[in-house]
Amino acid sequence: MQTEGFTSGFHSHFEALKKERHITNFYAPPEARTGERIRLPEDESHHLARVLRLGEGDVVRVVDGCGMLYVGRVAAIGRDAVVVIEDAIADAGEPAYSLTIAMGLLKSRNRFEVFLEKAVELGVECVVPILTAHSEESRINRRRVDSIVLAATKQCGRSRLMKVEEPRSFESVVSTQGDVFVCHEAVSPTDTLLRRLLDRKPTECVVVVGPEGGFSENEVLQCGQSGAEVVSLGVRRLRAETAAIAVASLASAVLGP
Ligand code: SAH
Protein backbone atom coordinates (compact mmCIF):
# COMPACT_ATOMS: atom_id res chain seq x y z
CA MET A 1 0.00 0.00 0.00
CA GLN A 2 1.32 3.43 -0.78
CA THR A 3 0.85 6.34 1.53
CA GLU A 4 2.60 9.02 -0.50
CA GLY A 5 0.50 11.27 -2.68
CA PHE A 6 -2.50 11.48 -0.38
CA THR A 7 -3.84 14.96 -0.72
CA SER A 8 -4.47 17.26 2.21
CA GLY A 9 -6.75 15.46 4.57
CA PHE A 10 -9.35 18.10 5.33
CA HIS A 11 -12.31 16.74 3.36
CA SER A 12 -11.65 13.04 3.77
CA HIS A 13 -10.84 13.60 7.41
CA PHE A 14 -14.10 15.46 7.85
CA GLU A 15 -15.99 12.57 6.23
CA ALA A 16 -14.24 10.11 8.52
CA LEU A 17 -15.05 12.24 11.58
CA LYS A 18 -18.72 12.51 10.65
CA LYS A 19 -18.99 8.74 10.60
CA GLU A 20 -16.98 8.07 13.71
CA ARG A 21 -17.53 11.09 15.88
CA HIS A 22 -17.04 9.34 19.19
CA ILE A 23 -13.84 7.54 18.28
CA THR A 24 -10.56 8.33 20.01
CA ASN A 25 -7.53 7.65 17.85
CA PHE A 26 -4.79 5.23 18.78
CA TYR A 27 -1.15 6.25 18.53
CA ALA A 28 1.74 4.36 17.01
CA PRO A 29 4.98 6.07 15.94
CA PRO A 30 6.02 5.85 12.24
CA GLU A 31 8.52 3.05 12.94
CA ALA A 32 5.66 0.84 14.19
CA ARG A 33 4.43 0.55 10.61
CA THR A 34 5.74 -2.05 8.18
CA GLY A 35 3.99 -1.82 4.82
CA GLU A 36 0.28 -2.26 5.49
CA ARG A 37 0.67 -3.37 9.07
CA ILE A 38 0.95 -1.29 12.21
CA ARG A 39 2.02 -2.84 15.48
CA LEU A 40 0.49 -0.79 18.32
CA PRO A 41 2.62 -0.09 21.40
CA GLU A 42 1.85 -2.14 24.49
CA ASP A 43 -0.21 0.46 26.36
CA GLU A 44 -2.27 1.27 23.27
CA SER A 45 -2.84 -2.46 22.68
CA HIS A 46 -3.99 -2.80 26.27
CA HIS A 47 -6.41 0.10 25.84
CA LEU A 48 -7.74 -1.38 22.61
CA ALA A 49 -8.38 -4.90 23.86
CA ARG A 50 -8.93 -4.56 27.61
CA VAL A 51 -10.49 -1.12 28.06
CA LEU A 52 -12.46 -0.68 24.84
CA ARG A 53 -12.89 -4.44 24.33
CA LEU A 54 -12.22 -4.21 20.63
CA GLY A 55 -11.12 -7.31 18.77
CA GLU A 56 -10.21 -8.77 15.39
CA GLY A 57 -12.08 -7.19 12.50
CA ASP A 58 -12.98 -3.95 14.33
CA VAL A 59 -12.25 -0.69 12.50
CA VAL A 60 -9.83 1.64 14.29
CA ARG A 61 -8.00 4.88 13.55
CA VAL A 62 -4.31 5.23 14.26
CA VAL A 63 -2.21 8.42 14.11
CA ASP A 64 1.58 8.41 13.82
CA GLY A 65 2.21 11.82 15.42
CA CYS A 66 3.97 12.95 12.22
CA GLY A 67 0.91 13.86 10.17
CA MET A 68 -0.55 10.51 9.08
CA LEU A 69 -3.93 9.13 10.08
CA TYR A 70 -4.59 5.50 9.19
CA VAL A 71 -7.95 3.79 9.14
CA GLY A 72 -7.64 0.03 9.44
CA ARG A 73 -8.89 -3.18 10.97
CA VAL A 74 -7.60 -5.03 13.96
CA ALA A 75 -5.90 -8.20 12.71
CA ALA A 76 -4.55 -9.48 16.03
CA ILE A 77 -4.74 -8.59 19.70
CA GLY A 78 -2.36 -9.44 22.51
CA ARG A 79 0.65 -7.66 23.96
CA ASP A 80 1.09 -5.83 20.65
CA ALA A 81 -2.13 -5.45 18.67
CA VAL A 82 -1.78 -5.45 14.88
CA VAL A 83 -3.82 -3.17 12.62
CA VAL A 84 -3.99 -3.67 8.85
CA ILE A 85 -4.28 -0.33 7.04
CA GLU A 86 -7.18 0.21 4.66
CA ASP A 87 -6.93 3.97 4.14
CA ALA A 88 -4.45 6.73 4.90
CA ILE A 89 -5.06 10.47 5.22
CA ALA A 90 -2.21 12.98 5.29
CA ASP A 91 -2.30 15.98 7.64
CA ALA A 92 -5.61 14.92 9.19
CA GLY A 93 -6.79 17.48 11.74
CA GLU A 94 -3.82 19.78 11.06
CA PRO A 95 -4.17 23.50 10.34
CA ALA A 96 -2.76 25.10 7.19
CA TYR A 97 -0.84 27.75 9.19
CA SER A 98 1.97 27.39 11.68
CA LEU A 99 1.59 29.07 15.08
CA THR A 100 4.31 29.01 17.71
CA ILE A 101 3.33 30.27 21.15
CA ALA A 102 6.25 31.31 23.33
CA MET A 103 4.96 31.22 26.86
CA GLY A 104 6.58 32.59 29.99
CA LEU A 105 7.09 29.66 32.34
CA LEU A 106 4.30 29.75 34.91
CA LYS A 107 4.71 29.30 38.62
CA SER A 108 1.55 27.20 38.51
CA ARG A 109 2.43 23.91 36.81
CA ASN A 110 -1.24 23.08 36.68
CA ARG A 111 -2.13 26.20 34.69
CA PHE A 112 0.76 25.60 32.30
CA GLU A 113 -0.47 22.06 31.71
CA VAL A 114 -4.03 23.24 31.05
CA PHE A 115 -2.62 25.63 28.49
CA LEU A 116 -0.66 22.80 26.80
CA GLU A 117 -3.76 20.65 26.44
CA LYS A 118 -5.79 23.53 24.96
CA ALA A 119 -2.93 24.50 22.64
CA VAL A 120 -2.97 21.00 21.14
CA GLU A 121 -6.72 21.14 20.64
CA LEU A 122 -6.53 24.58 19.02
CA GLY A 123 -3.89 23.54 16.49
CA VAL A 124 -0.72 25.15 17.87
CA GLU A 125 2.36 23.73 16.14
CA CYS A 126 4.99 24.53 18.72
CA VAL A 127 5.22 25.81 22.29
CA VAL A 128 8.41 27.46 23.47
CA PRO A 129 8.57 27.89 27.26
CA ILE A 130 10.50 31.08 27.92
CA LEU A 131 12.57 32.36 30.79
CA THR A 132 11.68 35.98 31.49
CA ALA A 133 12.54 38.53 34.17
CA HIS A 134 9.38 37.65 36.12
CA SER A 135 9.35 33.85 35.55
CA GLU A 136 9.53 31.96 38.80
CA GLU A 137 10.04 28.57 37.20
CA SER A 138 12.79 27.43 34.84
CA ARG A 139 12.08 23.81 33.98
CA ILE A 140 9.39 21.68 32.43
CA ASN A 141 8.55 18.11 33.36
CA ARG A 142 9.19 16.38 30.03
CA ARG A 143 7.40 13.14 30.91
CA ARG A 144 4.20 14.93 31.93
CA VAL A 145 4.37 17.31 28.97
CA ASP A 146 4.72 14.42 26.49
CA SER A 147 1.85 12.51 28.03
CA ILE A 148 -0.49 15.56 28.03
CA VAL A 149 0.35 16.30 24.40
CA LEU A 150 -0.19 12.70 23.32
CA ALA A 151 -3.53 12.31 25.13
CA ALA A 152 -4.86 15.60 23.72
CA THR A 153 -3.68 14.70 20.20
CA LYS A 154 -5.56 11.41 20.24
CA GLN A 155 -8.62 12.96 21.80
CA CYS A 156 -9.02 15.88 19.40
CA GLY A 157 -8.15 14.08 16.18
CA ARG A 158 -4.85 15.69 15.26
CA SER A 159 -2.26 13.58 13.49
CA ARG A 160 0.88 15.57 14.38
CA LEU A 161 2.28 15.93 17.88
CA MET A 162 2.67 19.54 19.01
CA LYS A 163 6.34 20.28 19.71
CA VAL A 164 7.27 21.57 23.15
CA GLU A 165 10.81 22.92 23.18
CA GLU A 166 13.15 23.10 26.14
CA PRO A 167 12.91 26.48 27.92
CA ARG A 168 14.96 29.27 26.37
CA SER A 169 15.50 32.98 26.77
CA PHE A 170 13.04 35.77 25.95
CA GLU A 171 15.78 37.44 23.81
CA SER A 172 16.23 34.37 21.59
CA VAL A 173 12.49 34.31 20.85
CA VAL A 174 11.88 38.00 20.14
CA SER A 175 14.84 38.11 17.78
CA THR A 176 13.33 35.34 15.59
CA GLN A 177 12.95 36.38 11.93
CA GLY A 178 9.43 36.88 10.55
CA ASP A 179 6.19 37.88 12.29
CA VAL A 180 6.71 37.98 16.06
CA PHE A 181 3.91 39.46 18.19
CA VAL A 182 4.36 40.08 21.90
CA CYS A 183 1.14 40.32 23.94
CA HIS A 184 1.25 43.04 26.57
CA GLU A 185 -1.64 44.36 28.63
CA ALA A 186 -0.26 47.91 28.78
CA VAL A 187 -0.56 48.81 25.09
CA SER A 188 -3.52 50.57 23.51
CA PRO A 189 -6.44 48.11 23.40
CA THR A 190 -7.11 49.20 19.83
CA ASP A 191 -3.76 47.82 18.69
CA THR A 192 -4.88 44.22 18.74
CA LEU A 193 -3.39 40.92 17.68
CA LEU A 194 -6.66 40.27 15.85
CA ARG A 195 -6.13 43.35 13.64
CA ARG A 196 -2.55 42.28 12.78
CA LEU A 197 -3.63 38.77 11.89
CA LEU A 198 -6.53 39.99 9.75
CA ASP A 199 -4.31 42.52 7.93
CA ARG A 200 -1.38 40.22 7.35
CA LYS A 201 -2.78 36.67 7.29
CA PRO A 202 0.64 35.21 8.09
CA THR A 203 1.11 31.51 7.25
CA GLU A 204 3.69 31.35 10.01
CA CYS A 205 4.04 33.45 13.15
CA VAL A 206 5.31 33.49 16.73
CA VAL A 207 3.16 34.97 19.52
CA VAL A 208 4.74 35.64 22.91
CA VAL A 209 2.79 35.64 26.19
CA GLY A 210 4.25 36.60 29.56
CA PRO A 211 4.18 34.70 32.87
CA GLU A 212 1.90 35.57 35.83
CA GLY A 213 3.92 38.69 36.61
CA GLY A 214 3.91 39.96 33.01
CA PHE A 215 6.88 41.41 31.11
CA SER A 216 9.39 43.84 32.59
CA GLU A 217 9.76 47.31 31.08
CA ASN A 218 13.13 46.29 29.77
CA GLU A 219 11.65 43.31 27.95
CA VAL A 220 9.00 45.51 26.33
CA LEU A 221 11.79 47.88 25.20
CA GLN A 222 13.73 44.95 23.75
CA CYS A 223 10.76 44.09 21.51
CA GLY A 224 11.06 47.44 19.74
CA GLN A 225 14.79 46.95 19.19
CA SER A 226 14.41 43.45 17.78
CA GLY A 227 11.50 44.13 15.41
CA ALA A 228 8.88 42.21 17.41
CA GLU A 229 5.49 43.96 17.57
CA VAL A 230 3.75 44.59 20.89
CA VAL A 231 0.02 43.89 20.70
CA SER A 232 -3.10 43.91 22.87
CA LEU A 233 -5.72 41.23 23.50
CA GLY A 234 -8.30 43.78 24.64
CA VAL A 235 -9.21 45.93 27.63
CA ARG A 236 -9.18 43.25 30.32
CA ARG A 237 -6.07 41.87 31.99
CA LEU A 238 -6.14 38.14 31.32
CA ARG A 239 -4.38 35.44 33.24
CA ALA A 240 -1.37 34.20 31.33
CA GLU A 241 -2.90 30.87 30.31
CA THR A 242 -6.16 32.56 29.30
CA ALA A 243 -4.18 34.98 27.11
CA ALA A 244 -2.32 32.09 25.45
CA ILE A 245 -5.50 30.10 24.83
CA ALA A 246 -7.16 33.22 23.39
CA VAL A 247 -4.19 33.65 21.04
CA ALA A 248 -4.48 30.07 19.77
CA SER A 249 -8.21 30.47 19.29
CA LEU A 250 -7.86 33.79 17.44
CA ALA A 251 -5.28 32.33 15.08
CA SER A 252 -7.47 29.33 14.40
CA ALA A 253 -10.48 31.56 13.62
CA VAL A 254 -8.56 34.00 11.40
CA LEU A 255 -6.00 31.72 9.74
CA GLY A 256 -7.94 28.41 10.09
CA PRO A 257 -9.25 25.77 9.69
N1 SAH B 1 1.64 42.44 34.52
C1 SAH B 1 0.42 41.97 34.97
C2 SAH B 1 -0.36 40.84 34.34
C3 SAH B 1 0.32 39.83 33.51
S1 SAH B 1 -0.85 38.90 32.65
C4 SAH B 1 0.30 41.95 36.45
O1 SAH B 1 0.92 41.11 37.11
O2 SAH B 1 -0.44 42.78 36.91
C5 SAH B 1 0.17 37.67 31.92
C6 SAH B 1 0.41 37.83 30.44
O3 SAH B 1 -0.80 37.68 29.73
C7 SAH B 1 0.96 39.16 30.00
O4 SAH B 1 2.37 39.22 30.12
C8 SAH B 1 0.52 39.25 28.56
O5 SAH B 1 1.43 38.56 27.72
C9 SAH B 1 -0.80 38.52 28.57
N2 SAH B 1 -1.97 39.41 28.67
C10 SAH B 1 -2.89 39.43 29.63
N3 SAH B 1 -3.86 40.34 29.35
C11 SAH B 1 -3.52 40.90 28.18
C12 SAH B 1 -4.13 41.91 27.35
N4 SAH B 1 -5.26 42.50 27.68
N5 SAH B 1 -3.51 42.22 26.21
C13 SAH B 1 -2.36 41.64 25.84
N6 SAH B 1 -1.73 40.68 26.58
C14 SAH B 1 -2.32 40.32 27.73
Named at the architecture level, the CATH assignment of the largest domain is: 3-Layer(aba) Sandwich
| N-C termini distance | 29 Å
Question: Count of helices?
Answer: 8
Described by strand count, sense and barrel closure, the largest sheet is: 7 strands, parallel
Structural class comes to alpha/beta
Oligomer: single chain
List cofactors, ions and other ligands. Answer: S-adenosyl-L-homocysteine
Give unreliable regions as ranges. none
Name the CATH homologous superfamily of the largest domain: SPOUT methyltransferase, trefoil knot domain
Calculate Rg over CA atoms: 20 Å
* Broad shape: elongated
What is the name of the CATH topology of the largest domain? Alpha/beta knot
The residue fraction in helices comes out at: 25-40%
Query: How many individual domains?
Result: 2
Number of strands: 13
Roughly what is the average pLDDT, rounded to an integer? Answer: 92
Short description:
With 257 residues, the chain is an alpha/beta fold.
Please, could you describe this protein's structure?
A hairpin with a 5-residue loop joins strand 5 (68-76) and strand 6. This protein is of the alpha/beta class. Helix 3 runs parallel beside helix 4. The mean pLDDT is 92. Strands 7, 8, 9, 10, 11, 12 and 13 form a 7-stranded parallel sheet that branches. A 6-stranded mixed sheet has the order 1-4-5-6-3-2, with helices on one face. It has helices at 10-19, 42-51, 109-121, 142-156, 170-174, 193-200, 217-226, 240-255; strands at residues 26-27, 33-34, 37-39, 59-63, 68-76, 82-90, 98-104, 126-131, 163-164, 168-169, 179-183, 204-209, 229-231. The chain has 2 domains: 10-90, Ribosomal Protein L25, Chain P (Beta Barrel); 98-255, 3-Layer(aba) Sandwich (Alpha/beta knot). It contains 8 helices and 13 strands. The radius of gyration is 20 Å and the shape is elongated. Residues 183-185, 209-210, 213-215, 232-234, 236-238, 240, 243 line the site of S-adenosyl-L-homocysteine (SAH).
